[in-house]
Amino acid sequence: MKIGSYYRPESVEDAYRCLQQDPESCLIAGCTSLKLSKRYISRAIDITALPLEKIAFDGNRLTIGSVASLRDIETNPFCKAMCSGVLGRSVEHIMGPQLRRHITIGGMLGSRPEFSELICVLLALNAQVEYYKNGCRSMEQFLSAPPERDVILAIQIPAAKSRCSLKSIRTSYAALPILCTAVALVEDKLCIAVGARPEGAVLAKKAAKEAEKAGKSVSATEIASMVSEELVMKDDLRSSQAYRKAMCKVLVRSAIEEVTNESESVGE
Amino acid sequence: MKVNLWVNDQPKEWEIEPDEFLAESLKKHRYASIKTGCEIGSCGVCTVWVDQNPVLSCCTLSARMEGKHVTTMEGVGKEAEELAKYLVGEAGEACGYCSPGFIMTVLAMTRELTHPNREQIRTYLNGNLCRCTGYLGKNRAVEKYIESIYNYSKTKEEER
Question: Which residues partner with A136 through β-bridges?
């Protein structure tokens, strides 16, 4: 990474204006992913001083400011209370607390790492990404569209009676996951997201629809098999496609069983 | 560009590049405890405190330090010395390259967590890698150090 000049905006409007003025400018926050790139940034717009780090819960939804760090998410009481702390669990394997204090949720969404368990969970929970000018995008829309030159203000997670389970497989505690699955039960509907395939997280819509149609006559094992069939998995250095397909069945089944048997619910 | 900051409670005005990271700046100004390892935020060797929070100086832009208080191991000499005694006692010192970052993380943990248990200690120190793989000695040393400060504060409380 090479930076031409550094700029600390006074407001979100100021940051947005600067971003539009120069196509080679870039918003920066934690700098952890940018540091790995060879990109030239003519003007680095540092948004960490803007008041975008708040985490709030209004009874219906959890709002996480885009500059909140993963460590904030891990330790915040509202985040801990949501779905039995699934948000915290989705980031706890990322090295130590120092690194998690650097990485911001907005920065993580901006760089969209394929192996991110947090993105997988947000997708399953049907989170919304709130832009400054372009309004809100569902996680699914956000991940399928190219990055927008706008400031992400916050991530909103609807909390209405949802349950969520995250299951991942990795070779050691701090290793990147070979596969991660997040299953949310929102108003009796299953929402299944699978990430690190090794491509980014996607929803298994067809399997979820089939499960909804069949109701209780379909077992968790059958739904997990449908998910494994539906989603594209590939080989990479960490695992083979066949292993991922096999593990997908195990992880999804286990996650479905957990959300359907769980007695506690979100926001309580 | 210029940046005004505090390092170990001393005011500083440094001339920096816009893409200069804090580890580079501190090394340039001869803070000998600053070591760098992976330089991508994965090993914890470069840990310092910014406003009392442990951060990785290899990933922290110096330009962002305007008005901030940076603490390196030189700024926590007495406490560091005390913890180092336990590291030496438990053969957790090894080559010593990771020690400054490790010590800064342990001291930050003692401020953040009250009497952490073994699991909490291991989780907290997960981001500090040791190239000599001397983790067992390090863990023993940290547990004993924490026990000692816990017992010390307990005795103080009882005396009151």
Answer: A130
